[in-house]
Design brief:
Strand content: 5-15%
Order of helices and strands: EHHEHEEHEHHEEEHEHEHHHHHEHEH
């Protein structure tokens, strides 16, 4: 995962889908002038991400766009491919398709679709998408998807292989995948251009994912290039106010303690792989018992500091080098400053650091 320290990190930002979207979009020109290069739209169970990405495409001219993420269950593979091709078209070739499995709470609880076969579905979805973008008649027979659906597979027998009517702007739209589990990360390293991990600890990433990444890279097509680690990270220039730190703690406690069932919490498992087994158990026990404040207080301070990008400029420059050495190539920052003008100023400061950061003497 290590690279030369001269490798450049791209500056992106997560655009809030739950609130403040209009305000953030209105600031996009200011963010672009401050050095922002990419905007990422999440999609959980709020408004869909497609409409907002289309809106951003119309409002901007240079910003790259990323879905962070479209989950693979609620849209067919062909629809995901069509959507990506459409967003790439309206943006003039600026879109990256971010995919992920999400979790059973959203997939089964909101969409009413069985949450199964994450690895197999991810691989098959990417394969079908790439067929569509190449304008090949889509033919796929896998464990999870059959295209076209034949009479033998329960169809009418009238389906036939079809290719996309339109000519995509690009026949190879980049694919980025969110993954945390070791098997999932191995698949990402094998088939995707980008990887979206969450709560990435740069000094313990090798410990958590080294073997998985090596296994995937051993099968990777060199034409895919270097894996672009696209990291969502909470961000603040200067000593963060207590309320900002508390928000980070609350988020970590939610994910480590309450995101999923006790034995099906990917974030808790990741925290254990980082070496915080006792702390992860305590946080989960407290959170599931309804003691959310106590769970947040139990989050180790060094974990808070490791998975965020906060502090004075010298501290941030040091953290940037740690993330760079761990393979991060894109920051998807979540500016934590309360004032919009401060958020723009902080982005400008980080852009300057990324242009030639070195650890200050």
């Amino acid at each position: 995962m290590s690279t030369a320290p001269t490798d450049r990190i791209k500056l992106g930002m997560v655009v809030d889908y739950a609130g403040g979207f209009d305000e953030t979009v209105e600031l996009m020109l200011a963010y672009e002038q401050a050095g922002l290069e990419l905007a990422a739209i999440p999609e959980a169970y709020s408004f869909d991400g497609v409409s907002q990405l289309g809106y951003l495409a119309a409002k901007t001219e240079r910003l790259e766009l990323l879905s962070a993420i479209f989950q693979i269950y609620s849209r067919t593979p062909a629809l995901l491919a069509m959507t990506a091709a459409g967003l790439d078209f309206v943006s003039g070739g600026r879109f990256t398709l971010g995919l992920g499995a999400s979790g059973p709470q959203v997939v089964e609880g909101f969409h009413g679709v069985k949450y199964d076969a994450q690895l197999g579905r991810t691989r098959e979805v990417v394969d079908i998408c790439r067929q569509v973008w190449r304008r090949e008649p889509v033919v796929h027979r896998g464990k999870n998807y059959t295209v076209p659906l034949t009479r033998e597979d329960g169809g009418s027998g009238l389906g036939k292989p079809l290719k996309l009517i339109n000519h995509p702007v690009r026949s190879e739209i980049p694919v980025s995948i969110a993954a945390l589990g070791e098997k999932n990360v191995a698949v990402v390293a094998e088939i995707a251009e980008g990887w979206q991990p969450l709560f990435f600890h740069p000094l313990k990433a090798q410990q958590a994912w080294g073997e998985a990444l090596a296994a995937g890279f051993a099968k990777r097509d060199p034409a895919l290039g270097e894996l672009d680690i696209q990291l969502q990270v909470n961000f603040h220039v200067g000593e963060p106010p207590a309320e900002v730190v508390q928000k980070v703690r609350d988020q970590l406690a939610l994910y480590i303690g309450g995101m999923g069932a006790r034995d099906k919490n990917f974030y808790n498992q990741l925290t254990c792989r980082y070496g915080y087994e006792d702390e992860a158990k305590e946080i989960q026990d407290l959170y599931l018992a309804g003691q959310k404040a106590e769970a947040a207080a139990a989050v180790p301070q060094d974990l808070v500091e490791a998975v965020t990008l906060m502090g004075d400029e010298a501290s941030i420059a040091r953290q940037v080098e740690e993330f760079r050495a761990a393979g991060v190539r894109t920051f998807l920052v979540n500016p934590m400053a309360a004032d919009p003008a401060d958020r723009v100023a902080h982005v400008r400061t980080l852009a300057g650091i990324l242009q030639g950061a070195r650890v200050p003497a």
